[in-house]
Design a protein that fits this description.
This protein is of the alpha/beta class. It has nine helices and six strands, in the order H-H-H-E-H-H-E-H-H-E-H-E-E-H-E. Helix 5 packs across helix 7.
Length: 242
């Protein structure tokens, strides 16, 4: 039996026999996020003023862009992230990403839609595309966390999701272990548009974390080389840059 199907069965059994827990503290909570964690998350939520490109919170209302975006050429148009990548958000995403807590994806997606529905409608994407994993990494993990987010967002927003048109053709090293120049080199030609791609004007890319934007830039570049006009992104959390 396919490994992904087995994990789906296991997850359904857990949901059936084990009470729902808060994804940030693991306490039993049928409401999703417990009251205590909801208060903690308010301090991590990205607020205005935001960088007009990557969406990172900036200190001055007089500035339009963060330091990173002022010194970096990005291929994407604009993006938004919900929380700063700090505890307990980073710990929760780690569980979502590496420990089969796929059900967290639905809650993250609900929070993204609740906070950014207006902006997403303004972008008016034709399709949502998750940032793909390399096939070997996906086989080992059993799922792509970005695809889980994308599918939930597509269902909530009634926007088509395309998980087949973009592929990661190069097994890259984890970005968090590399410096700025190494990250760019690591992702050069990492993505490719597949024969399944059908021309669209605007794409919403979805991933779990935004750090420097190199991954999203590499994916955007591949899409724009095939005629996509505008690319936007959503992530759960955002780091503090270089």
């Amino acid at each position: 039996m396919n490994k992904s199907i087995i994990q789906d069965i296991k997850e359904n059994i857990i949901v059936l026999f084990w009470p729902e827990t808060c994804p940030f503290c693991q306490k039993v909570c049928k409401e999703g996020i417990c009251t205590e964690c909801r208060e903690r998350l308010e301090f991590l939520r990205i607020r205005e003023p935001r960088c007009m490109q990557c969406g990172k919170q900036i200190r001055s209302m007089e500035k339009e862009y963060c330091y990173d975006c002022m010194h970096t050429h990005h291929y994407y148009e604009q993006g938004l992230s919900l929380w700063n990548h700090k505890a307990p958000v980073n710990q929760s995403i780690y569980q979502f990403k590496y420990h089969n807590q796929r059900r967290y994806g639905e809650l993250y997606s609900q929070e993204l839609v609740k906070n950014f529905q207006k902006e997403i409608r303004r972008w008016n994407p034709d399709v949502i595309i998750p940032v793909p994993l390399h096939w070997a990494r996906r086989r080992k993990r059993g799922y792509n966390q970005a695809q889980i987010l994308a599918e939930n967002l597509g269902r909530l927003l009634c926007i088509p999701v395309d998980s087949k048109s973009l592929a990661r053709r190069k097994k890259t090293s984890p970005q968090k272990k590399l410096g700025h120049n190494e990250r760019k080199k690591n992702l050069k030609n990492a993505f490719a548009v597949t024969p399944a791609f059908r021309p669209v004007r605007k794409v919403l890319l979805v991933d779990d974390i935004y750090t420097t934007g190199n991954t999203l830039d590499a994916a955007t570049k591949a899409l724009k080389e095939k005629g996509v006009e505008k690319v936007y992104f959503l992530t759960i959390s955002i780091g503090q840059g270089y």
